[in-house]
Amino acid sequence: MNPLVLFSSIDRVRCRFGQHASSMDMLRSETRVIVAIGPANFGGIGRVSERLRTLASLGPAARLGLRATPRSRRWAYRPDLIDEDVTEVPAFPLHELDRVLTELSRSSSPEIPFRARLAGDYLLLDISHGLCDALLPLEVIGYLADPRPEAPLPRWATQDVTVHPLLPTLASWVVSHPRKVLDMVYGRIRPGKAGAFVAPAVGATVGPATHGDTTPWHRSPTVVAASSAVGFVDRIRQWRKDVGETASVSAIISTAVATSLARSGIRLSNSVTFLFDCRRYLPADAVVLGNFAAGLDFPSTDPTSRDQVQFALTSAIDKGRPIAAATLSSLKYQRTGSASGSTVGDRVDADPSAELIFSDLGRVRSLETVSWLSGETDRVFYGLSEPSRPESIVITTQQLGTVMYISASFHDNAFDPATVKAALDAVASSPLDLVTAQETPS
């Protein structure tokens, strides 16, 4: 029998009655997931609150009614509190979106796991990362923006939910790929072999910072965002076809962002981190609403090199490293109660090397059919999560149609917001200039 089927049946029974947070949930319970979307027909704050109460009342497995807290693994189920901080706020001009998202990030509280702000036709969600990764907010938004007065529940809301899929998923992968197990283990023990370091792209500054002066540091989350013109993704795909490029669109955009940041004067660490959705290892009909994404570090990997980044991504997925990394992190948390490398100091290098973390949500087709109130060029769709370390910059990309939306979340006492903003704008407006610049011989 497939191990996932065996263990999932147990988890489905447990999900109806228990509120025991998984290790993956606890590892993320001190950070937040924020999503901004609009303009769309959300039907006013009353309808938003009513539909949130409906989803939260479906049971603990639906996640929204849980009171996520980093202090305990026993999370109370209180669906009646889902709309305690769901409010309507004044509409704002779109050029102030960065400010609004930054203020929302800085005002979050671990005592309130879910917040929503309806600003005119734009909806902002602020959710404890312990409750979910990026999947659940996107599913919730699709339901909230359904213009039908009696909108049917989302399909996932009526299905059995797998609550603790990690170990059975790993077991299932091992059974199905026995010859790749050694590669998977070797990749965890010797991650530096994921890709050999070569010279960075022209104009890039990649490598360790010159350790010297440090400055005091405290949490100061900041957000900047940029969106492309219509046809952005089509132009990238056409360029791939014209030149015979084998790297994926995700790898191309990621390295373009890294190149733009480096050209703007931000020193980049000689490594890169990518977030992987481990649902890729699940059966197609499995439903996991909680955290099931893993961050994988690739040391000695130039973030401006398409070849290195593409090799790192494809080899990691093929060898099952994301699910292995998620399992090991969870086991470590169970043993120590903390994440590896989770300790954050109160000082940062005066000239820090940026540790880039990429999260690509891909094309979100489920949101392309919601009740949009504008054409593609005037839409907003950004997801982001706050980095815990001062040196980190989290880059989140997502597509609606052929438009690319890019956000960066970082701390403004480590990196200059105007510099990061200009780098994202350059990617959104002239991606092929950055892509072809990567090929210029040094």
Tell me what the structure shows.
The chain is α+β, with helices and mostly antiparallel strands and 442 residues long. It folds into two domains: 14-158, 2-Layer Sandwich (Chloramphenicol Acetyltransferase); 166-362 and 386-437, 2-Layer Sandwich (Chloramphenicol Acetyltransferase). It has helices at 3-17, 23-27, 44-56, 97-106, 135-144, 166-176, 181-189, 232-243, 249-263, 306-318, 321-336, 417-429, 431-437; strands spanning 32-38, 86-89, 114-119, 122-128, 214-216, 221-227, 271-277, 293-299, 347-349, 355-363, 380-385, 392-400, 403-411. Strand 3 (114-119) and strand 4 (122-128) form a beta hairpin. Mean pLDDT is 86; it is low at 1-18 and 189-204.
